[in-house]
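Narrative summary of target 7.
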Amino acid sequence: MQSIIDISKHGKVSGESLRQFCQGQIARFKIPPHFKIVDELSMTITGKPQKFVMCDMMVVSITGQVASSS
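Modeled conformation, tokenized:
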């Protein structure tokens, strides 16, 4: 199963192309309703993506409001 799409081979990536890619790979309810294409991810010192930063970016993108820090 291919988990990463190499955009150098496939050209420009869009939310719709990601959605189509996911349709044959995973269950329909697991396909995200929203996609945000970014150039790079914020990483921790150990090289892992900072998921809380990605979550905050999506909240701002979808709602237009800054996420609450609770």
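Helices lie at 7-10, 15-23, 51-63.
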